[in-house]
Write a structure and sequence with these properties.
Helix content is 41%, strand content 17%. The chain has an eight-stranded parallel sheet with strand order 3-4-5-6-7-8-9-10. Strands 1-2 form a two-stranded antiparallel sheet. It is of the alpha/beta class. The chain has one domain: NADP-dependent oxidoreductase domain (TIM Barrel, Alpha-Beta Barrel), CATH 3.20.20. It binds adenosine-2'-5'-diphosphate. The site of adenosine-2'-5'-diphosphate has 18 residues, from helix 10. The site of adenosine-2'-5'-diphosphate (A2P) has 18 residues, from helix 10. This is Aldo/keto reductase. It comes from Glutamicibacter bergerei. Pfam families: Aldo_ket_red. Keywords: NADP, Oxidoreductase.
């Protein structure tokens, strides 16, 4: 069963979650409500997306019990200290209207200041206290992850930008080698039409009576990777969750892997806002 992945403590993370960037306000709350009603059980947000209040509202409006939903958020660079992490968590919980998180992520490593070890050390305490169920990172390169590992700290998840054209195999391999689950953000290549109409994807999609987006998401989960596709549209949300009734062959997996341009994940700046 690849509809979820196991995090430390035998706690399950649904393989597909709703990405919420760059939705705001009613667009974000409506998208969260519809996704949960369709059957999503994981929502991905961030302080930086400025939509946590809307995400919390969408969750309450859905009527789905809080404990059935896996909620992830991420904190900004300004909070990379022990007290900062606690403040960031409290702020996010207040905005979301929740009293615990399933997964809390360092959004960007902020390597210039080298403060992510301090931040992660405190996050580990928050796990022990039960106010976050798991602690992880985002946009961490292998060398940055190594700094945490050297300090005896293992994030549950490293969420990175990853799609068939930006595959970054060495990044995922490094995560896997160290017991860190890889999660793809922008798993559909941001929905660019040149990508979702790539002849290779169209051909594999036709062979399974699926869409290129479904083939791409299935490729992610068959590769042992969680993914958080964003869609504001209930039909596309449903499409993106409907990937558990077919299997991509080894040869087709290789064809998708051959689409890699070597571009790698986006990591050098957070100005982009994601
Ligand atoms: P929309 O919100 O209108 O559905 P990513 O998650 O890689 O960043 O991609 C998100 C982009 O892809 C959004 O523009 C979204 O548009 C679009 N998108 C999401 N799901 C699908 C799909 N199944 N088919 C086509 N486009 C999609």
């Amino acid at each position: 069963d690849i509809s979820s992945f196991k995090l430390p403590g035998d706690f399950l993370m649904p393989a597909i979650g709703l990405g919420t960037w760059p939705m705001r306000e009613s667009e974000a709350s409506d998208a969260v409500t519809s996704a949960l009603n369709i059957g999503y059980r994981r929502i991905d947000t961030a302080e930086n997306y400025q939509n946590e209040q809307a995400v919390g509202l969408g969750l309450r409006n859905s009527g789905v019990p809080r404990d059935e939903v896996f909620v992830t958020t991420k904190f900004n660079k300004q909070w990379h200290s022990a007290t900062g992490v606690r403040q960031a968590l409290q702020n996010s919980l207040n905005r979301l209207g929740l009293d615990y998180l399933d997964l809390f992520l360092i959004h960007w490593p902020n390597p210039e200041q080298g403060t992510f070890v301090q931040a992660f050390t405190e996050m580990q305490k928050l796990v022990d206290e039960g106010v976050i169920r798991a602690a992880g990172v985002s946009n961490f390169k292998p060398a940055q992850l190594q700094v945490l590992l050297d300090a005896g700290l293992t994030p549950a998840v490293n969420q990175i930008q990853l799609d068939p054209e930006r595959r970054s195999a060495p990044w995922q391999a490094f995560n896997t080698e160290h017991g860190v689950l890889t999660e793809a953000y922008s798993p559909l290549g941001r929905g660019k039409s040149e990508f979702l109409q790539h002849p290779t994807l169209l051909q594999i999609a036709a062979a399974h009576a699926k869409t290129p987006a479904q083939v791409t998401l299935r490729w992610h989960v068959q590769s042992g990777r969680a993914a958080a596709p964003k869609s504001a549209n209930p039909l596309r949300q449903a499409e993106n969750l409907d990937i558990f009734d077919f299997e991509i062959s080894t040869a087709q997996m290789a064809q998708i892997e051959a689409l890699d341009t070597g571009a790698g994940p986006f990591t050098d700046s957070d100005e982009f806002g994601h």
